[in-house]
């Protein structure tokens, strides 16, 4: 259905000053005209006219890295993000279990605790969760999703005992002097046995939950999002949702290292394409090389100020050997797929640059230079590493929200110089890179405008000003979550700017991010989200 949108400032993102007064959507869901109201009306030919009441309209925001299926955490897990002590974690979980009447056949899950915000200043142990229940498995996950804690019941059901060795690329916490397990697990290799127990007990009904999962993105103006580490069963879920016509926004999936990724793609071959089928497609492959800086598991070239339990000279570790990483990267390149790789520490970034270049050089794929590999997070990437990314065509997707949420922890853990330059968007901009900004949902809600605010202002929760040389302009930040996001996905011909012929994916805002005081960008409200001309979300009236 044709729609003519008027009475708004249309921020085209073609450059930092270009705006328009009207936008016409054709029957095909693409932009038929953008420009003056008079010319738009002359072309409208009976189109429905929508008065936007003086709003600002930007291209639909593009999430360059998150975990769409992980958004179920917001629906099924207790929220521990506001807990400030072990006691509060216990009480929150007890209340959650009682409210939902969770019995022995169920599971009690919690997400979002952060040891940096707890008065104990350490991770909880199993005793905190045993106090919740001794008969029902309990699992809580850190805000980074890189670590978690299980109670004794879950340890037993998962078959994890004091004699269980630490897996490669992960570890289990043990009590000092006894060797007994304390319930802590670090990185997916150690946590996956827990998920094997807990996931079947959740009684997941994705068809019923998917409208709420999509709303989590749509209410933030996001029209394209990612499932950034897709397991084979979740690939099947997403394909089934697409076939049933239940996906309304575009979702790009990346099967995860550690599984038979090529079998996943082969089993769903129709979706292994640059083209979407019912708003879903596979975009490439995913691997990860280290952990979380706020969790002290990001792999660094220089030690943390202080490691776990006061350990000196702690630099953490890689989750993959060079040999395995090269093999997986070459698999992606040989099969003509984009590779996404999680790297937080600069040692992990060194490894990715090293192994990707080796894999690319060993590949005979004639299209290998056009694959646009992505370094996910890039929290402590150095200036020389950004230069190397530009040289080999790699895109950094920067988790800029770290500045606000964990900037103070980074200053403590990494010191003023390294901690002060986390999320170094300024270096990425100066290197000429088409960098993107993300929120790693469900680590944080997909508030990309807040991510832009963080990159522009670089202020921590405690009010510390991080390295101002790494600030970027509001236009550069908005470009990172519109055009650059489209470029990362190879979709810049269809998305990322408001131009004739592109999809009518729109975020309707109460203010123009390029016209407000930069300190107010985070306060901008999303009034509506439009996908291919159809309104998928409208902010409720007060």
TrEMBL record:
Q: What EC number is given for this enzyme?
A: 3.5.-.-
Gene3D superfamilies, per the entry:
3.10.310.70, Metal-dependent hydrolases, Urease, subunit C, domain 1
The protein's superkingdom reads Bacteria
Query: Which keywords has UniProt assigned to this entry?
Result: Hydrolase
* InterPro entries found in the cross-reference section: Amidohydro_3, Metal-dep_hydrolase_composite, Metal_Hydrolase, YtcJ-like
The Amidohydrolase domain covers 48-537
Q: Which Pfam families match?
A: Amidohydro_3
SUPFAM superfamilies reported for this sequence: Composite domain of metallo-dependent hydrolases (SSF51338), Metallo-dependent hydrolases (SSF51556)
A GO term for molecular function: hydrolase activity
Q: List the PANTHER family.
A: IMIDAZOLONEPROPIONASE (PTHR22642), PROTEIN LONG AFTER FAR-RED 3 (PTHR22642:SF2)
Please identify the protein, giving its name as recorded: Amidohydrolase
Source organism: Adlercreutzia wanghongyangiae
């Amino acid at each position: 259905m044709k729609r003519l949108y008027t009475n708004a400032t249309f921020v085209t993102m073609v450059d930092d000053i270009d705006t328009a007064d009207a936008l016409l959507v054709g029957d095909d869901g693409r932009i038929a005209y953008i420009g003056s109201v008079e010319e738009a009306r002359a072309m409208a030919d009976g189109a429905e006219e929508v008065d936007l009441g003086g709003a600002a309209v930007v291209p639909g925001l593009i999430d360059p890295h998150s975990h769409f299926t992980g958004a179920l955490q917001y629906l099924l897990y207790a929220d521990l993000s506001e807990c400030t002590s072990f006691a509060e974690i216990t009480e929150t979980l007890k209340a959650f279990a009682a409210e939902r009447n969770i019995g022995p056949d169920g599971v009690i899950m919690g997400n979002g605790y952060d040891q940096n915000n707890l008065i104990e200043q350490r991770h909880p142990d199993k005793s905190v969760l045993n106090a919740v229940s001794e008969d029902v498995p309990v699992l809580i996950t850190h805000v980074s999703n890189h670590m978690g804690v299980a109670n004794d019941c879950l340890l037993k059901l998962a078959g994890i005992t004091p004699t269980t060795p630490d897996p490669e690329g992960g570890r289990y916490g043990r009590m000092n002097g006894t060797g007994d397990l304390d319930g802590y697990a670090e990185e997916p290799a150690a946590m996956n046995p827990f998920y094997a127990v807990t996931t079947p007990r959740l009684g997941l009904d994705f068809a019923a939950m998917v409208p709420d999962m999509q709303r989590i993105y749509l209410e933030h103006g996001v029209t394209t999002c990612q499932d950034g580490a897709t397991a084979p069963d979740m690939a099947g879920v997403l394909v089934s949702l697409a076939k049933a016509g239940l996906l309304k926004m575009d979702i790009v999936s990346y099967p995860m290292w550690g599984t038979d990724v090529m079998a996943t793609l082969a089993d769903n071959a129709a979706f292994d394409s640059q083209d979407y089928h019912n708003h879903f497609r596979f975009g490439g492959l995913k691997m990860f090389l280290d952990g979380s800086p706020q969790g002290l598991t990001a792999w660094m070239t220089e030690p943390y100020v202080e490691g776990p339990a006061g350990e000196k000279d702690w630099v953490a570790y890689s989750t993959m050997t060079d040999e395995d990483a090269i093999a997986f990267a070459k698999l992606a390149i040989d099969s003509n797929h984009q590779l996404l790789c999680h790297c937080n520490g600069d040692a992990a970034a060194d490894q990715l640059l090293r192994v990707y270049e080796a894999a690319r050089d060993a590949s005979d794929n004639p299209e290998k230079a056009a694959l646009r590999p992505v370094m996910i997070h890039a929290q402590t990437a150095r200036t020389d590493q950004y230069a190397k990314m530009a040289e080999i065509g790699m895109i950094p997707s920067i988790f800029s929200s770290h500045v606000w949420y964990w900037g103070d922890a980074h200053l403590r853990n990494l010191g003023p110089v390294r901690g002060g330059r986390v999320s170094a968007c300024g270096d990425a901009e100066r290197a000429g890179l088409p960098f993107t900004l993300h929120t790693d949902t469900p680590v944080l809600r997909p508030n990309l405008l807040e991510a832009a605010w963080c990159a522009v202002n670089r202020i921590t929760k405690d009010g510390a000003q991080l390295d101002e040389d790494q600030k970027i302009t509001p236009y550069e930040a908005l470009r990172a979550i519109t055009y650059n996001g489209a470029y990362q996905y190879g979709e810049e011909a269809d998305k990322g700017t408001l131009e004739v012929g592109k999809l009518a994916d729109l975020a309707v805002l109460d203010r123009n991010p390029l016209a407000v005081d930069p300190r107010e960008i985070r306060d901008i409200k999303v009034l509506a989200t439009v996908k291919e001309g159809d309104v998928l979300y409208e902010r409720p009236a007060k």
